[in-house]
Each structure stands twice: as C-alpha cells, then as structure tokens.
C-alpha cells in the first residue's frame, strides 16, 4: 500500500503567516512582541538553532533578544537572569535553551519562568494548568503534533491513540492535549513491553522516545497514522526520527517525515506563542480579553 506523507512545511508556513498577521495587529496598538532566548553553551548545533529562531522572529515582526551567558555560566547567574526577564514588562516570551552546563539543574531553573511568558511550557505550573484545563502554553512540540493531525483532518475523538514516550517535554503534555480532544490515550514507555502489543491496534501512534528505529513496520497496521517526533543525529551527520521509515513506509496509512515534519511546525509555534503571550499581556482591555484560545 501507499503511505501518505504528512509534511509539516505547508502548515509551518500557514502558522508563520498567522504570526505575522498577529504581530502587525499588535503593532497597530504600538506593541511589538519581544522574545528572550537564554543560553549557556558553545554547542555549534544549538548556536545554529538559536540563530535560526532569531532570523525567523525578525521576519515575523518579533524582537528576539539572545542572552548568551557563556558555557561556564553558573546556576545562580542563570537564575538571576530568568527572574529579571520574568519581571521585565517589555519581555513577552522566554525560552531557556538547552543544553546547559553540566552542574546546572534545569529543573530548578524552568520554575523561575513566569507562566504567562513560558512559551515552551517548561515550567511545571504550565503542565499543571494543562492537566486541569486552564489556559497555558503547552510545549511547542506537543502542540505541533496536534496541529499536524488537525491540518490533515485526522480525527482523534473516540479513537485509539498511542503515545510512545513519557517525558515532560512531549509525552505527558501531548497525552493531556489529546485527552482534551476526547482521544482514548495509551502512554507507552521503556517498561511497557513489546510496542506492537499496543501500537498494532492504534489509529494514531506518536513516537517521542529518542531511540532510533524504535517503531518498525511490524508494529503498525494499514490503518495507523504515525507521527515521528524523534530527532536523532547519525554518525554521518544526517537526521532521522524514532521510526524505522524503511519498514513503516508501505505499511502504515500515513507518516510524518524527519526532517520536514514535526520539527518545522515546532519552531513556527514558538513564535506564534510569543505573539499570543504579547496579546495576553497587553495593557489594552480589548486585547487582554483575548486569552489563549488556541494554546490551551
């Protein structure tokens, strides 16, 4: 059978256009969204990624402040910067970029990001709000999965959806977003046993475990839509997901590519979250009344 390709590039373009429109609307009220990216690394791939966010933000009409504290920054310095940014009225969105120095506790820092500026859902308070149905920004990658399913008119209400991976970055928040869409969600992890036991009967499988070739063609059926969230770098520098594409393609009903799938939508959503945050934080009563309808 032929497996449909669920590319994220067209959707990312639509989201970027929406972001630009929102930014222009805010500018009419003399408001320009500001995104702060805090980093403490000299990792080349991370530097490239942050520069790409900066360029995309500029095109969208968003001011992007890159705060590079150096690869030897202490936890105390990072904490001070995050507190200051959270209290700074002109800053609308904050990202704490990983990796961080080895002796820095990321979990101790993300809680310092003000929830209303936590555009990538890193603060545990954001996850808690998602769990009880209150407005919050989910991690952009988790929301990207839902946006892709919506874009391709793939329903989840009442359907069997399996999420492989239970991280606080993707697996857990994604399961909450899917539950809010009335999906019947099963979360698998390293101790769940053979994946096929769960995934062969699934309508949708989302793989976000960070293990190359984790899901194979024998783990899916002809009705299965597979969303590959994995990003694994091979020794030759190429990028692959968690799905063994060679064996899954031709068996599953549809599959997102890596690269060109979830990742492209994730970056676009970070900027959309920034303009949504700016609107929510606006001193204008009319603008402030427009809460995070799409983010929650």
Strand content: 5-15%
Largest sheet, strands/sense/barrel? 6 strands, parallel
Reported CATH architecture of the domain at 140-262: 3-Layer(aba) Sandwich
Mean pLDDT, to the nearest integer, reads: 93
Which regions are unreliable across 5 or more consecutive residues at pLDDT < 50? 285-296
Report the radius of gyration as a whole number of Å.
Answer: 19 Å
Structure in words:
By secondary structure, the protein is α/β, with parallel strands linked by helices. Among the domains are: 31-114, 3-Layer(aba) Sandwich (Rossmann fold); 140-262, Rossmann fold (3-Layer(aba) Sandwich), CATH 3.40.50. Helices cover 39% and strands 14% of the residues. The strands form 3 sheets. It has a 6-stranded parallel beta sheet, covered by helices on one side. Helix 1 (9-27) runs parallel beside helix 10 (262-280). The chain is globular. The protein starts with a strand and ends in an 8-residue tail after the last helix.
Task: Put the structure in a nutshell.
With 296 residues, the chain is α/β, with parallel strands linked by helices. The protein contains 11 helices and 11 strands. Among the domains are: 31-114, 3-Layer(aba) Sandwich (Rossmann fold), CATH 3.40.50; 140-262, Rossmann fold (3-Layer(aba) Sandwich).
């Amino acid at each position: 059978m032929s497996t449909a390709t669920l590319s994220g590039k067209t959707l990312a373009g639509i989201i970027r256009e929406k972001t630009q429109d929102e930014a222009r609307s805010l500018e009419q009220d003399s408001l320009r969204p500001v995104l702060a990216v805090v980093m403490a690394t000299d990792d080349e791939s991370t530097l490239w990624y942050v520069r790409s966010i900066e360029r995309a933000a500029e095109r969208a009409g968003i001011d992007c402040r890159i705060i590079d504290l150096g690869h030897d920054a202490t936890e105390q310095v990072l904490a001070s910067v995050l507190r200051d940014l959270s209290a700074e009225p002109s800053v609308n969105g904050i990202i704490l970029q990983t990796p961080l120095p080895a002796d820095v506790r990321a979990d101790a820092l993300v809680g310092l990001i003000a929830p209303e500026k936590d555009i990538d859902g890193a603060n545990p308070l954001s996850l808690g709000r998602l769990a009880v149905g209150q407005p919050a920004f989910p991690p952009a990658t988790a929301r990207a999965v839902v946006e892709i399913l919506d874009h391709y008119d793939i329903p989840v209400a009442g359907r069997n959806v399996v999420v492989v991976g239970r991280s606080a970055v993707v697996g857990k928040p994604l399961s909450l977003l899917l539950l809010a869409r009335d999906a019947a969600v099963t979360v698998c992890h390293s101790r769940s046993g053979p994946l096929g036991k769960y995934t062969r009967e699934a309508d949708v499988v989302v793989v976000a475990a960070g293990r190359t070739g984790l899901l194979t063609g024998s783990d899916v059926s002809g009705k299965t839509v597979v969303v590959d969230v994995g990003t694994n770098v091979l020794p030759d520098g190429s990028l692959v997901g968690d799905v063994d594409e060679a064996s899954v393609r031709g068996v599953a009903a549809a599959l997102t590519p890596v690269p060109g799938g979830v990742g492209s939508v994730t970056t676009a959503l970070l900027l959309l979250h920034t303009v949504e945050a700016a609107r929510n934080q606006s001193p204008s009563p009319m603008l402030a009344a427009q809460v995070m309808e799409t983010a929650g």
